Amino acid sequence: MNRIGYIVAGILFLSGIKIFGQTEISSTTHWYNRANYNPASIAREGYIYTFSNVRKQWVGVDGSPTVYNIQASGYSDFRQSALGISVIRDDVGVTSAFNPTVQYAYLITLKDEWKLSLGLSAGVYSRKVRGSEYEAEVVNDPVLDYTDERFTSPDAHVGAELQWKYLIAGISTTHLFSLWKADDLFLISNHRYAYAIYRNSNSELYNFTGGIQVSNRKNLTVVEGTAIIRFKRPTGLIKGPTELFDIGISYRSVKQLTLLTGINITSNMRVGYTYDFNFSNTINGGGTHEILLEYRIPLNVSEDNGFYWYD
After folding, report:
1. pTM listed for this prediction
2. Which residue range forms the structural domain that includes residue 145?
């Protein structure tokens, strides 16, 4: 495939053509941080949380997607609220998307340690198309527009998340303003998410996370399941065991298998790496690499077991 073919493939990926089975900015580390598509998830009590990741998709394919993501949020016990910011950049071929948003979540305490978080984010979604960089096989092809253009739209997400010691369940819908517009080749469209995550940290040797998520855009539905084990070292201290490293596996119904790994540098800093194996015959490219960095600033001492679980 020549370079213009890769550019067209990237645009098809962004426009939601069913052949590729994915239409949202993709990330395999969302099992650790769901704020990309559900602002309610930023209601993390007890600390300021920062998260960043870089994702290089379809290694070996010229012009393949590269995503840069930076997020930060903090929770106020006094206001029962969390504030956050999110900045995402997505490069595909000769297009670049920029999606900054401000996030807010309000936490409601229910019975028996259950909590409900309601979240909203607002910002803009902007994509630039650098037509001047087209390298067509036919010079000055009249079908192509060689001018540089930028497409911008207001953007908003809304969601809810039910939280408990052993369970997290949430629903959300993204890019709300696209609901009142026809599909656009360069601006993202509305998506819906539902998920349930079971987590158990009772053992002194490991934590376990298992979850399922369903995402939908019009007639395209993707189901994803995952299982992650985080190993710990007992300390015999009141603060509890020390988290060491984790390994997990995730599978998407679009024939994609993901290996998730991570290591705790300190009790509040973690780096992670994921690799996607793509079994779809429609994509002729290598795997996908993703690197993440999490850092937390504790605001008080946990009342549970002296350390916080990354969720």
Report:
1. 0.82
2. 3-190+267-298
